[in-house]
Amino acid sequence: MADNDDIPFNRDFPLVPGVVDEPRPGVRRVLCNNPSPFTFTGTVSYIVGKGNVAIIDPGPDDEAHAKALLDAVRGETVTHILVTHTHRDHSPNTARIKAATSAPVYAEGPHRASRPRFESEKHNPESGADRDFRPDIQVKNGDVIEGQGWALEAVATPGHTANHLAFAWPERKINFVGDHVMGWSTSIVAPPDGSMIDYMASLARLEAREEDLYFSGHGPEIPEGPRYVRFLTRHRQAREASILHRLAKGEADIPTMVRAIYIGIDPRLTNAAGYSVLAHLEDLVARGIVATDGDPVIGGTYRLT
Questions:
Q1: Distance (Å, whole) CA 23 – CA 87
Q2: The pLDDT of residue 78
Q3: pTM reported for the whole predicted model
Q4: Do residues 89 and 60 make contact, with C-beta atoms less than 8 angstroms apart?
Q5: Which of 72, 124, 189, 214 has its CA 20 to 30 A from that of 272?
């Protein structure tokens, strides 16, 4: 959602699709040509190392992008493919890169929801889940994946999806944070795929770490990562306060709250904003601050307890 003045967003990202750049020694990136209100200028894939390399997030089902990635590593050996999470703008191209390189695929696991779907919930197509993805090697928090000249530590960062991982390079104080933290916008947290409770805990986990340069799934790199994470945390706390402020005036449904809170939002993002409000409401209901009849769902009506 691009409607927040309280976060120092950076939307200056001149990278052109298919062109390789090297923002830091041993870190290359290639932009996919899949711009949208949800992906900004497109998905960024990363190449770590020289000679024997890892590719992080091969991107959407896009032959041209797969070719650009393989051209970027011509004459080198891809030894690892790492996937931060299973949304369709990040993982489907893995199959092409694996077919071309035979490199094993590392990820947390197949796509799954953060919680069981409630009976009254319809499938949310907004989630864009890649339900076909299966890693060769399942990775959990703290696992270290080593290659030639680099070692990446898996950092469990559920929230945007249940299976989201960041890949930290502690020696270089760099963290590849996927869609958990983005410099151009806040991340979408849409239940049941996403969870605000998990998302906030994952922000705290990143903030406590030493890495201070973040490379994101979309948009430019983020300097002073932990400081930026504090802005994101305060923003979510302010969003929660706005919801409670609106409910203090009387019970309301989610569209009413979105109109009150997201002034001037891009209409294409209204649905996503509703799911973000739902994510906060799930958290508030779990904490006993807000009540609803039945399960906390997108069509529900909410009130203060």
A1: 25
A2: 98
A3: 0.95
A4: yes
A5: 214
Q: Which of 6, 9, 269, 56 is nearest to 166 (CA)?
A: 56
Contact (Cβ atoms closer than 8 angstroms) between residue 115 and residue 121:
no
255 lies in the same domain as 115: no
Q: What is the pLDDT of residues 156-209, one digit of tens each?
A: 999 999 999 999 999 999 999 999 999 999 999 999 999 999 999 999 999 999
Q: How many other C-beta atoms can be found within 10 angstroms of the C-beta atom of residue 179?
A: 25
Residue type at 93 in one-letter notation: N
Are both 210 and 282 inside the same structural domain? no
Residue 278: give its domain's CATH number. 1.10.10.10
CA distances from 143 to 107, 165, 168 (A): 11, 11, 11
- What's the domain count of the chain? 2
Whether residue 7 is contained in a domain is answered as no
- In this structure, the answer to whether residues 77 and 192 fall within a common structural domain is yes
Q: Report whether 125 contacts 134 (CB < 8 A).
A: no
Contact 15/31 with Cβ under 8 angstroms?
Answer: yes
64 to 34, 38, 97: CA distances (angstroms): 11, 20, 12
Phi, psi of 177 (to 5 degrees): -100, 5
The pLDDT, as a whole number, for residue 1 is 37
- For residue 20, give the amino acid letter: V
Tokens of 142: 């703290």
* Same-domain pairing of 123 and 228: yes
Q: How would DSSP label each residue in 21-52?
A: EEEETTEEEEE-S--BTTTBT-PEEEEESSSE
Parent domain of 299: 235-304
Amino acid at residue number 195 = S
Residue carrying the six token digits 């077919």: 99
Does residue 214 sit in helix, strand or coil? Answer: strand
> Which of 209, 233, 257 marks a domain boundary?
233
